[in-house]
Amino acid sequence: MPQEQIIDGVKIISIDICKIMERTWNPSSLTLKRQILFPIAVLFNMPETFDIYHGHIYSSGLIANYLARRSGGVAVNTIHGSYYPIWNKLTNPIAAQCYRIAERILAPALAKFSDIQLHTGDYFAQQVISWGAPKQKIRTIHNGADITRFNPHIPHATVPDHVSIDPSLPVILTARRLVRKNGIDYLIRAMRSVCREEKCQLVIIGEGEERDSLERLAHELHVQDHVHFLGMIPHDKLPPYLALADIAVVPSLVEASSIFMLEAMAMAKPIIATNAGGLPEILPPSAGIFVEPMDEIGLADAILELLRNKEKRLQLGKQAYHHVQDNYSWKAVAQQMESEYMRLLTEKKAQAEQLPDIPFV
User: Fold this and answer.
1) Can you give the residue ranges of the Glycosyl transferase family domain (predicted)?
2) What tens digit of pLDDT does each residue of 66-86 get?
3) Which of 11, 65, 154, 303 could tie 75 with a disulfide, CB 3.0–4.6 Å?
């Protein structure tokens, strides 16, 4: 039976069948198995009729289109970025080619079928248009940050006793899923050069399949005393840990509009990010430093530059804070989303009113 709960005043109905959604849940990644099984859980629960069916990624985008057509509702599909540019770096050549072909087929097809396709990174929106998707059906709405929960006035977290963070040393911090595409290995390699010249420490928040190999890498490079893995921290408890940071780093190989980066900006942290995917779309040069993906030397140089220049750190953090306040609060993002919903509903109603009456014979 569907499970109902109220979160922040919104009714959430969670559906499952034979616990397949529960069994395929993975907090660090959206597995292919879960995407394949999700339509089964939806169809066997036969959800009630809604005005808008908003599917995220591919399988839920397909099911949203099916349900919208069945009930006469609006079909919305969101694509949260893509690994298309780097699939060959994440898996074997055959699998990489299969994933790339699947994206080239599914992304533009879903754009054609849906009333609108939303993207959280314009880099992939433009890619999908180049594959033949109707330009008028593509919109980019970047992610946002909770600027009330994440702000420069949050006090530092009390670090657990088993984590030996030195409060007297600068903290470089990243909060990422520990998977290959997020480039944490390049950040750890950069720390080898940084620690030779400056005393500092890297704090890594998150879990994922790469954790064991990343911890081994830190030992192999003899930086294990300067790299602290804190594991998964619940999102509502993250702000005090982010408050520890002197510098926030997003070393991804590809990324849409990183929520972690926006939250760090909302807390007035200077940003070092890779010039990858949608990151340059939300981080102006006045609020951070860009390096190329997989460039451990560039990462090290950028970190050293900010460690040695407190005034620049403060200036970048100030610019980052104002940029998020002005453009990327969740309220602003919600208003963009609501505007698209209302436009689509108005168009759907107008189309229905234009249909001619068919007399009964």
Assistant:
1) 166-322
2) 999 988 999 999 999 999 999
3) 65
